[in-house]
Amino acid sequence: MIGWQDVYKVIEAMFPLYVALTLGYGSVRWWNIFTPEQCGAINRFVCFFTLPLFTFEFTAHVDPFLWNVRFIAADVISKAIIVAVLAFWAKWSTKGSYGWSITSFSLCTLTNSLVVGVPLMKAMYGPMAVDLVVQSSVIQAIIWLTILLFVLEFRRTGLDVSSAASNINDGNKEEQGNKDLEGNTLVVVGGDDDHKPSFWSLMKVVWLKLAMNPNSYAVYIGIIWALVANRWHLEMPGILEGSILIMSKAGAGTAMFSMGIFMALQEKMIACGPRLTVFGMVLRFIAGPAAMAIGCIAAGLHGDVLRVAIIQSALPQSITSFIFAKEYGLHAEVISTAVIFGTMVSLPALIAYYILLDFLH
């Protein structure tokens, strides 16, 4: 059973995040240190430097040969269910939206496993649970954050191409208008279809952009090193590990600092409003664990492994998901609110899950 000392350890792990958040908020709202342009540059620094190195560092130190295959299968099944539901909603519902499907996927599935999950799971179920949470974090980085990055880049590239085509068409139409005024004639040229890119040409642009984004391959370099190092018992050279650690240690802190800056630039503390805040909390603490419960049943999990799987799926929102949302301009205010309030309410919510699952056992 969780004691007060265990609760304190979780708070001890979470509190520094809010220190960084407050410093970021104050640097803009109270002290006027950064301009809006500089705030954007800080987010890009976090996105392209500290987060990739943070991802590589924790991935490179796992042992993939000891992973629990059933646990990973349950995780994959649960997220596949969510993807299928959201894709169906976006395609067939009159209120469906691919943009909101992407955001809803983040809210349902992407968790802050390392900062909050490790101390909490250790207090609840011991070292076994910590190993499972780390496995979940690595799988999240390898599969789901990579997919998220791809769809965000695909969306932004498509919007950029459409915007460029629209500008070309507007230019053409203005030059017809001028000719019409001069010669009393109207010649139709360059409709929208003339500037629509093919799917493969769009994909080529997306892959080129992803190739220049270290977030898209940092985790794969890390897992390759983990496989090689654990297979042949190698250690990373100290000079290389030190070079990585000096930046990766700043990953979570700079991400929260960037979120504080984002909050300071908004007119309201709850940028997305109370309705979307509640929506985000429902997806985070109810829909995600429900899908994981189905995945656990399908994968045949039982005992403490099943309980850990469900509880870790209700961990607070991933900070990385906010950095991506901010960088790609998709509902960053919703994700930031989910991170902030989700982290605040996660402790009582997770303890409630712990008690409920123990009672059902």
TrEMBL record:
- List GO terms (cellular component aspect): endoplasmic reticulum; plasma membrane
Q: Keyword annotations for this protein?
A: Auxin signaling pathway, Membrane, Transmembrane, Transmembrane helix, Transport
| Family per record | Belongs to the auxin efflux carrier (TC 2.A.69.1) family.
Protein name in the entry: Auxin efflux carrier component
Q: Which residues are listed as membrane-spanning?
A: 15-34, 41-59, 71-90, 102-120, 132-152, 217-234, 246-265, 277-300, 337-356
InterPro entries assigned to the protein according to its UniProt record, in alphabetical order: Auxin_eff_plant, Auxin_Efflux_Carrier, Mem_transp_PIN-like
Q: Which gene encodes it?
A: PIN5
Q: Which domain of life is it from?
A: Eukaryota
Record Pfam families: Mem_trans
Compartments, record wording = Membrane
Role summary: May act as a component of the auxin efflux carrier.
GO terms under biological process: auxin polar transport; auxin-activated signaling pathway
Q: How does it sit in the membrane?
A: Multi-pass membrane protein
Q: Which organism is it from?
A: Boehmeria nivea
List, in alphabetical order, the Gene Ontology terms for molecular function in this entry: auxin efflux transmembrane transporter activity
